[in-house]
Structures are given as structure tokens and as C-alpha cells.
Design a protein that fits this description.
It is built from eleven helices and eleven strands. It is α/β, with parallel strands linked by helices. The protein has two domains: 94 residues, Leucine Dehydrogenase, chain A, domain 1 (Rossmann fold); 126 residues, Rossmann fold (3-Layer(aba) Sandwich), CATH 3.40.50. Strands 1-11-8-7-5-6 form a six-stranded parallel beta sheet, with helices on both faces. Strands 3-2-4 form a three-stranded parallel beta sheet, sandwiched between helices. Strand 5, helix 7 and strand 6 form a beta-alpha-beta unit. Helix 1 packs parallel to helix 11 and helix 6 crosses helix 11. The longest helix is centred in the last third of the chain and has 19 residues. The chain binds nicotinamide-adenine-dinucleotide.
Length: 281
């Protein structure tokens, strides 16, 4: 039976380190959070982020903008925050109104304040093994894997899902540890090859968003399984992996909810403090 890899205790441990770093900063770090309109999902993120920030001694500066703001006005607003020296990091809350393209707007956040780690310059630094601001979900998966003490050198790692926020940056982070990384995606499934890749994974990371995509009996005996997927099935939140069977075969497995999710906001705060540290130098 697998050991459960829960995010919360790990997050608490990491937060202790963040608190020490905050205390060592010259000024209280400031996170500017852009909320357009009042989408309930975005409001829920704001609530959990502001609570985490407060707890860590970080100022959470909420910038609530009207629902009908234009892309140009939003870009102008981001530019102002870029040049405001009192702001160390910027996040744009999702979802945005349909008229606003997140990918376009987010590229205007300056690289040194990009605490979601999505600026091309920050992604590029991952390629060179020099990243300070890492996409939060990929960073969370990495923390959970590392917390098991597993030596990744030469390990067969299979990542299912190749999005910019999870699969692609995670593949680079794992390559840096000399794992042998395979990235599977919709093309792999369409070619009928998903099962054969999953079956040989010593470390399996799944980030797709399809409940039950990974059958429990595909899991290699003793594998480490990180399930990032979030799916609502019959009013319950489940991951992408068939948990009940998988936990009998894996050595470690993340629960959904409670695995990767609780760590991501901590990773965001860690990025904010890293940004503040390099700006206040
Ligand atoms: P995305 O839609 O950007 O990417 C989905 C990926 O899954 C793509 O690479 C696609 O090719 C692949 N895919 C789709 N169908 C497939 C199939 N049948 N077989 C194999 N691969 C398939 O998604 P995303 O933003 O990376 O999110 C993925 C999941 O992770 C979602 O459920 C999302 O809610 C969840 N998520 C969780 C957290 C968290 O904090 N726990 C954070 C981010 C995303």
C-alpha cells in the first residue's frame, strides 16, 4: 500500500523557511494581485492567496479592476505596476473576462516580477538550470517528488500532459536531475501508446484533467505517482489516476484533493520572496 504524499505538511515546512527569508528582507515584500471583475473562482484564489501572504508577513495588494476593462487599459495597468518600485511581484487572477487574452496580457509582466514563472525569460532560465521563478504547479510536483528522498538519476519518469504550466517546465526540471524523461500527451493516446509508457514509469506525473484516464493496474509496482489532475465527478473532486487500485501498487501517491493543490500557493509566495530578494539586493 502506497504512502500518501500530502501537500499540506510539506507546505507548512516550506513556509517556515519562507518566513525566515521574509524576516531577512529590508522591506516587507509586496504582491500585487490583479482581479478583473468578481468571478467566484478568481475570488476564491484571492482569498487563499491573501491568507497565505498575511501568514508569511507578505503584503497582498489587491487591485480590483472593472469587468469591462479593455486589454489596452489592462496592459497600461500592468506597466504601471512594473515601474512601481514598491511592488515585488504581480499575478493576474484567472479566469479573466472572455474579451481578455491572458497569454497576451501576462507577457507584459516584467520578468523580474513574474511570480507565476511564465515569462519567456524565466522559462528560458529553466532550460539552463538557473531558474529562480518556476511555474508553481511544476514546482509543487518537484517538491513532492524530492520529499520522498528518491534519487532521480537515471530513473524512468513519464509525464502525461504537456502544457506550458505543468508538463513542459517539469520535464526540464527533471532532466536537470538526470532522470530519463518521457512526455506523453493527447498524441500518445491517439496513437494507442499511453498504456505502454505509463506501465514502465518509475515516477509518473499526470496533468491532463480526465478522471480515470490512467488505469490503476497500469501503475508499475513501487512507482511514485503524482496526480495533478482536478476533475469533478458526482460532486466529488478526483484526479486523473484510478486511485483505489493505483495506491495498492505505488510506493507513494498524491491524494486528490490534498496532494499538489495545497502546495501551489506556497510556491507562489516562495517565488514572490525570491523576486523581492533579487530586487532588494
Ligand atoms: P491543459 O489543458 O493545458 O493540458 C492538458 C494536457 O493533457 C495536454 O498536454 C494534452 O495533450 C493532454 N491530454 C489531453 N487528453 C489526453 C489524453 N486522452 N491522453 C493523454 N494526454 C491527454 O491542462 P493543464 O492546465 O496543464 O491542467 C491539467 C490538469 O491539471 C487539469 O485537471 C487542471 O485542473 C489540473 N491542474 C491542477 C493544479 C493544482 O494546483 N493541483 C494546477 C494546475 C492544473
Amino acid at each position: 500500500m502506497a504512502k500518501l504524499l500530502e501537500g499540506k505538511p510539506l507546505a507548512e515546512k516550506i513556509k517556515e523557511g519562507i518566513k525566515l527569508e521574509v524576516a531577512a528582507l529590508k522591506n516587507k515584500p509586496v504582491l500585487a494581485s490583479i482581479l478583473v471583475g468578481d468571478n467566484p473562482g478568481a475570488l476564491a484564489y484571492v482569498k487563499s492567496q491573501s491568507k497565505a501572504a498575511e501568514n508569511l508577513g507578505i503584503e497582498y495588494r489587491l487591485q480590483n479592476l472593472p469587468q469591462d476593462i479593455t486589454e489596452d487599459a489592462l496592459i497600461e495597468f500592468v506597466r504601471k505596476l512594473n515601474s512601481d518600485n514598491s511592488v515585488n511581484g504581480i499575478i493576474i487572477q484567472m479566469p479573466l473576462p472572455p474579451a481578455i487574452d491572458y497569454k497576451k496580457i501576462s507577457q507584459f509582466i516584467s520578468a523580474d516580477k513574474d511570480i507565476e514563472g511564465m515569462h519567456p525569460a524565466n522559462i528560458g532560465k529553466i532550460l539552463f538550470g538557473k531558474a529562480k521563478l518556476i511555474p508553481c504547479t511544476a514546482a509543487s510536483a518537484m517538491e513532492l517528488i524530492t520529499s520522498t528522498g528518491i534519487d532521480l538519476y537515471g530513473k524512468e519518469v513519464v509525464i502525461v500532459g504537456h502544457s506550458e504550466i505543468v508538463g513542459k517546465p517539469l520535464a526540464l526540471l527533471l532532466l536537470d536531475k538526470f532522470a530519463t524523461v518521457t512526455v506523453a500527451h493527447i498524441g500518445t493516446s491517439k496513437a494507442g501508446k499511453l498504456e505502454e509508457h505509463v506501465r514502465r514509469a518509475e515516477v509518473l506525473v499526470v496533468a491532463v484533467g480526465k478522471a480515470g484516464l490512467i488505469k490503476g493496474d497500469w501503475i508499475k509496482e513501487g512507482a511514485l505517482v503524482i496526480d495533478i489532475g482536478i476533475n469533478r465527478v458526482n460532486e466529488k473532486i478526483v484526479g486523473d489516476v484510478e486511485f483505489e487500485v493505483a495506491e495498492k501498487r505505488a510506493s507513494f501517491i498524491t491524494p486528490v484533493p490534498g496532494g499538489v493543490g495545497p502546495l501551489t500557493v506556497t510556491m507562489l509566495m516562495r517565488n514572490l520572496v525570491a523576486a523581492a530578494k533579487s530586487q532588494q539586493r
